[in-house]
Amino acid sequence: MSWQLTDDVEAFASTSDDFLRSRPVEHTVFLTLVDTLRRRGLHAYGSGAPIFGRWRTGEGAVEGVLLQTPPHPMMFSRLPAGAVAAALDTLAGRPLSAVNMLVDDAAEFVAGWPAPSATERLRVRLYRLEDLAPPSPPAGRARVAGVADRDLLVRWTSAFHDEIGEVREDGYGPVVDDRLSYGGITLWEVDGAPVSMATRSRPDAGMVRVQQVYTPLSHRGQGYGGAATSAVTREALDLGASDVVLFTDLSNPTSNGLYQRLGYRPVLDRVVMEFAS
To answer: Of 153 and 60, which is predicted with more confidence?
Structure first.
């Protein structure tokens, strides 16, 4: 059993695709990242070179993966016994600012990583839709965003990332353009003016992830975010998705309560641990 690292996305995809697609709900982010890197190039998420890894059994089967798109944390799938300890050995000597792992795996990794200290930066919960329970709709209607909305969407996407403390090296235009290309942004508008947005991933292995829900501060508290989320969830179901998922920040009780009222149910928790240099 061993970790094998590579900087070749095609080599990683060819050996890990069956593993990732075997549990598309758990592996939702990995599937989206690999798809994006294959379509848009290795620097789709930043100027740093991505790194990929797979944990193989003695028989050669893949039972765990890691993936990092710098400057973002290194993300690990659920890992079998022995894989965390082996990862510590395999990654020894590499610069590592943060990891994104299942909570139990993160505790073991942090205990063994040679950093002066580690700080919990974010704890998130993955939800999967059970049965959609649309809220009583507020004023307005949903519509799929188009290229005429691009400038607004870039501003809102930037504002969303500012609120969660993330910065993108090359701005958010490429992200918005990609989502517009497949109809992946839904707006809720009132009297013809957008008041909220919700975005979704492309369908992959029967899975669609609701990625960003954003309502400007001046429009919050009116139910627009819930309406936009319900609408984009319905779009995913209409596209044939068998699994619709989303992540929430566990420090935000409002969003966690909202998504459960819409019919989403908890699956697992992940944590981002940041290392002092």
So the answer is: 153
Range of the domain at 201: 128-268
In a domain, 145, yes or no: yes
Q: Do both 97 and 152 map to the same domain?
A: no
pLDDT digits (tens, 9 = 90+) for 208-257: 999 999 999 999 999 999 999 999 999 999 999 999 999 999 999 999 99
CA gap 100, 103 in Å, rounded: 9
Closest among 26, 88, 79, 22 to 54, alpha carbons compared: 79
- Cβ atoms of 259 and 222 within 8 Å: the answer is no
DSSP 3-state assignment of 169? Answer: coil
- Determine, yes or no, domain membership for 61: yes
If 0-12 CB within 10 Å is exposed, 13-18 middle and 19+ buried, where does residue 158 land? middle
Compute the CA torsion angle 105, 110, 112, 116 (nearest 10 deg).
180
Instruction: Tell me the pTM.
Output: 0.94
DSSP bridge partners of 125 = 248, 269
